[in-house]
Design a protein that fits this description.
Length: 80
């Protein structure tokens, strides 16, 4: 995989640091740092979008996205 260095103020291409940080937190605490429903929704949206494109950008039903999701109190935005 080619991972170009970002421009400007940094010398580190750390695109995967947020993911690795969340994995480490999960291993250490035994709890996912954010609800699994968030992953189900984002994956489901992506899959539905790709399927719609494949079918000529037709409307498709998405009953699999009927997931109740309550965001965490703490922000999961990556901060260095």
């Amino acid at each position: 995989m080619y991972l170009p260095m970002p421009d400007g103020r940094t010398t580190l291409a750390n695109f995967f640091s947020p993911q690795v940080n969340n994995m480490e937190e999960m291993y250490l605490t035994g709890k996912a740092p954010y609800p699994v429903e968030r992953t189900l929704l984002t994956t489901g949206l992506t899959a539905a979008g790709v399927e719609s494109l494949y079918r000529g950008q037709t409307r498709i039903e998405t009953p699999h996205l009927g997931i109740k999701y309550r965001p965490a109190q703490r922000s999961t935005f990556w901060r260095t």
